[in-house]
Amino acid sequence: MPPETKQGQPYDQGFDLAYSLETAIWIFDIDHARVLKANEAACALWMAPNEAELTTRDMGADMSPTVAQRLQQYQSDFIQSDARFTELWTIYPNGTPRSVMVVYRGHRLDDGRMAMKCEVVGDSADTAQNLRSAEALLHTDVMIMLFGTEGPSLYLNPAARRFCGGSELVLSDIFEDQFEIDAIIEAVQRDGEQRRLTRLASHSGGGWFDLSVKGCSDAATGQPALLLTAIDVSELKEARDTARHLANRDQLTNLHNRSYLQNHLDWLEETNAAAGSTVIVFDVDRFKLINDRYGHAAGDTVLRKIAVRTRAALDAGDLLARLGGDEFVIVLPGPHDPATALNRIERVRQAIGAPILHGETRLDATISGGMSHVRSGSDHFAKVLREADIALYHSKKSGRDQVTVFDVDMGQAVDERERLEVALKQAVVNREFTLHYQPRLDLSTGRITGVEGLVRWEHPTDGVINPDDFIPVCEETGLIDELGRLVLEMGCAQAIEWHQQDLALDLSLNVSPRQFADDDFLRCLDDLAQLPGFPKGQIELEVTENVLIGDPVHIAAKLRRIVDMGYRIAIDDFGTGYSNLSYISEFPLHCLKIDRSFVAQLPSAGPIVQLILTLGQQIGAKVVSEGVETKDQLDWLADRDCTEVQGFLIAKAMPADTCATFVKAYTSAPKPR
Q1: Mean pLDDT of 465-490
Q2: How many domains does the chain contain in total?
Q3: DSSP readout, 186-244?
Q4: Are 258 and 191 part of one and the same domain?
Q5: How large is the C-alpha radius of gyration of the chain?
Q6: Nearest-angstrom CA–CA distance, 562 and 521
């Protein structure tokens, strides 16, 4: 609040003369936004009945922030110098706009603070449009500055003064680079105007502005001048810079991402700077195991640490990007010899190999990589990246934790594999597959009581292809799902046909772990079980021990649903995988098949085979020995009550018609029990 004064007494003796003047004069306390003294003319201007009432008004109640800032600028100027301003102001006494020309001077109060003496020198006769323009100029956040060709500023609007922190400045005060000033002036002299996005300096640090500079004349002197209009776009530029950063960066590791990598490689090709460059693709060995065992947070820790260590092991000009997952790419700009590139990636491998801590858990990570070079200006990075991927695949096949340099032989092998994949996809569509059947001999009766259906690819030009040559590719590419459904359809159709011919044979069909886990697997089995003539209890589905890993309750329920449909369950290659014996009895198993590797090692593998035979007897499942190729093996198994045998000694797999004939003609003396 202003210091108390005795009503009717001037605040200072010099104000006595103002009371008799017809010109409106008042003293304004800028700090408290109140009128301290006013003559009658001022009271009339403000529509106040008397001075006492006017001094009680809180002028700051409806004062805009812009006006308040402008008054503070005046106060600063009054303190620094004997400043005087003449400006057109619009006041709002009792809400009624009144535009007047006012002269402002500093007025020192008794307590030392700086107030303002205001003197009206005339009413404005300007048009409403001009009055509004002046008001807009006062309130706008756009900076407007007028400079002569030399010397200090000629005019700064309130926004410019707020930014610059003063009433006078020269161009070099707001531009960070004299070269930019010279370039702007040159452009204005040549074109009349210049517009650019630039950074302007201020007492508080500066910011980014959309700057427009036009050549003009000073209205007061007629001398050449520069009119600067600047719009603050700092937030917009920061948002765009952030968006650009996010578009080019991987969020987890802050490395460059696939999009940036592709743009960078395109630029290298367009500028003919690609020749001699080296591309290294690497990923983390058994990264899925880290995620599964320790959680995805631990996996993220590994990826971030690998990014940091790799970046530190590379040179400043090398590019490192994360393609996604655990796959990274390094681009070493050429030219340099292969030995240098190998030395660089070896530094990376050594750095990554150090222990990684996730909380208190120690994680060990290794990488496998593939390397290729841009050998000439005609090489494209798409080709080089593919070659590096091929070399990476070779590193993994060779045992991991190594980097392989691409050679032509690798490319030929991959080309052959890709042709095989394409041919397999077409083969599935064209149903180029058939089943051959290998008989199983019942040792107690000497009769063929069952067969195993084994898929063959009847290639249009290469003839019959065995499963070992295409099943691994199907499993890696996911074609095993479609092929598995096709095998089930063919097997069930054949079982129905044999059943209608009164040929009593159990038929076993292999089911892959991926196929078993498929949500559509049960639906497919149910559809087949609804076919007319479906021989319930005669189709056996062979699954591996790995299928039994997981929630035993869920697995047991799924197996029981399959059995309820009319199928039987066998475990193939029993003893070579993982079996939780505590749950074996909970599963509805009808058959255990001893893997051929144990049979081949008889009699040295006898204890293992005997254990499986005993287990089968205990859970009520028949036991079938695969891979029986000698009479000694057959006799050993017969002496120990093996239920059935299967192998080349009995018969090889054969087409359906041949197999039916073989089964009907086969006779063998039963083995003694």
Answers
A1: 87
A2: 4
A3: HHHHHHSEEEEEEEE--TT--EEEEEEEEEEE-TTT--EEEEEEEEE-HHHHHHHHHHH
A4: no
A5: 46
A6: 10
The strand pairing partners of 211, in sequence order, are 196, 230
DSSP string, 456-520: EEEETTTEEE-GGGTHHHHHHHTHHHHHHHHHHHHHHHHHHHHHHTT---EEEEE--HHHHH-TT
Residue type, 152: P
Other C-beta atoms closer than 10 Å to the C-beta of 64 total 10
Residue 532, preceding peptide bond in cis (omega within 30° of 0)? no
Query: Is the pTM above the cut of 0.85?
Result: no
In this structure, what DSSP letter does residue 352 have? H
Residues 179 and 118 in one domain: no
Predicted confidence (pLDDT) per residue in 260-306, tens digit: 888 888 888 887 777 778 889 999 998 988 988 889 999 999 999 99
pLDDT of 85 > 80? The answer is: no
Respond yes or no on whether the N-terminal peptide bond of residue 603 is cis (omega within 30° of 0): yes
The answer to whether residues 2 and 37 touch, using CB atoms and an 8 Å cutoff, is no
Residue 35, pLDDT score: 92
8 Å CB contact between 253 and 342: no
DSSP characters for 284-324?
ETTHHHHHHHH-HHHHHHHHHHHHHHHHHHS-TT-EEEEEE
Please tell me whether residues 499 and 606 are part of one structural domain: yes
CATH number reported for the structural domain that contains residue 434 in this entry: 3.20.20.450
Is residue 423 a part of any domain in this protein? no
Amino acid letter for position 363: L
